[in-house]
Design goal:
A six-stranded mixed sheet has the order 2-5-1-6-3-4. It starts with 8 loop residues before the first helix and ends with a strand. 32% of the residues lie in helices and 22% in strands.
């Protein structure tokens, strides 16, 4: 068994398969998930695991070259907006409808137990060299 890092075998395996330019959606429990992308559902109960915990764990494992969130997060969930801005410099924004449409082309969707509206972000994978 791994000593540290991501222990969930489904998530660890899915992350290992991502390549440069692949998109990964980290979402709250209420985000509609389209058919197509691989889904790792981590939601245990409302708020567990939190969006922040999952995002921090993923950022420790991935190289991210770009990130996009719903513009509505800035007014509807300012604490989440602050968290995203702090952890993802250069964060871009699109409408929530556009973010939902983009989720269909994500290679991986990671669902958290977060119950805060607009706690969703699309991450674009980079390379480590």
């Amino acid at each position: 068994m791994k000593r540290s890092g991501i222990l969930n075998r489904h998530l660890a395996g899915a992350l290992a398969e991502l390549g440069h330019g692949d998109e990964l959606l980290v979402c709250d429990a209420g985000m509609p998930i389209p058919p197509g992308p691989r889904v790792v559902d981590l939601a245990f109960r409302a708020g567990v695991p939190s969006f922040a915990e999952v995002l921090d764990g993923l950022l420790a494992e991935l190289v991210v070259e770009g990130a996009t969130a719903a513009e509505e997060v800035r007014t509807a969930a300012p604490a989440t907006a602050g968290l995203l801005a702090e952890r993802l410099p250069g964060l871009g924004y699109v409408s929530h409808e556009e973010l939902k449409a983009r989720s269909a082309r994500a290679r991986l969707v990671v669902r958290t137990g977060e119950a805060t509206p607009y706690a969703n972000v699309s991450l674009r994978c980079g390379v480590f060299f």
